[in-house]
Design goal:
By secondary structure, the protein is α+β, with helices and mostly antiparallel strands. It has one domain: Glucose Permease (Domain IIA) (Distorted Sandwich). Helices cover about 20% and strands about 25% of the residues. It is built from six helices and 13 strands. The chain has helices at about 5-10, 35-40, 45-60, 150-155, 210-215, 220; strands at about 25-30, 65, 70, 90-95, 95-100, 105, 110-120, 125-135, 140-145, 160, 165-170, 185-190, 200-205. The strands form three sheets. Strands 1-2-5-12-9-8-7-10 form an eight-stranded mixed β-sheet, covered by helices on one side. Strand 8 and strand 9 (about 140-145) form a beta hairpin. The longest helix has 14 residues, at about 45-60. The two termini are about 25 Å apart.
């Protein structure tokens, strides 16, 4: 069986955010522990972080900032979901984030049906989340879209079918998306196991190799760079 990464790489480029925004209006964003500017900025609240993102977009003459696959980050330390005494710290991001204004349209990456959806409530969590199921070259896999608006899941049904490029959601704001600046967390999942409307988007060092295998780089599909 052909590896999923090879299948994704062979597919034409796709978008998961507002089709009208050109790729030339995207700019890479480094939120890693190695970004000294970010550390020194001391972004303690979602409001601080949103200002940082908006300023970054303006400075780069961009509408979307993207990045974060296999990126170690400090920003999860404020949430007990990722940092508590019972489990190893999870701080390695295993999806791709696309940062834009709240309300920005989110698109289906490929033809697929709704596998599940859920409002993952909690500081640092996904908030409203949609998972689509796809099948390409007889391989089943899934795409996850997190940090959405509440309206995105209000009239959704399991099994609803979306075509590639069709609107499935809009970006939520900090009041519903886990208290982050507006963005979509986009992740590809090969084996979703028993997860429903949720799947880990951040892992620890010990589990990293598993997640690299099970959650290939979303840019293989998006081909932003």
């Amino acid at each position: 069986m052909k590896p999923l990464a090879s299948i994704l790489n062979a597919l034409p480029p796709t978008k998961v955010i507002d089709e009208s925004i050109k790729i030339s209006e995207y700019t890479p964003l480094n939120l890693s522990v190695f970004n000294k500017e970010l550390v020194e900025a001391k972004l303690d609240t979602s409001e601080d972080f949103e200002k940082y993102i908006l300023n970054y977009l303006r400075e780069n003459n961009a509408k979307v900032a993207f990045g974060g696959y296999i990126e170690g980050r400090f920003l999860y330390q404020r949430s007990s979901i990722f940092l508590n005494d019972s489990k190893p710290e999870r701080n390695i991001h295993i999806g791709l984030d696309l940062w834009a204004e709240a309300g920005t349209v989110v698109l289906a990456a490929l033809n697929g049906k709704v596998h599940s959806f859920k409002n993952n409530i909690g500081l640092g969590d996904y908030g409203p989340t949609i998972i689509l199921e796809h099948e390409v070259e007889n391989q089943k896999f899934y795409t996850l879209y997190g940090q959405l608006s509440l309206e995105s899941i209000e009239n959704l049904n399991i099994g609803d079918y979306f075509k590639k490029g069709e609107k499935i959601a809009t970006l939520g704001n900090a009041s519903v998306n886990g208290d982050y600046a507006p963005h979509v967390h986009f992740q590809i999942i090969h084996n979703i196991e028993d997860y429903w409307g949720d799947y880990p988007g951040v892992c620890n060092t010990k589990d990293l190799n598993f997640y690299i295998e099970n959650c290939p780089d979303p840019n293989l599909l998006l081909k932003i760079t």
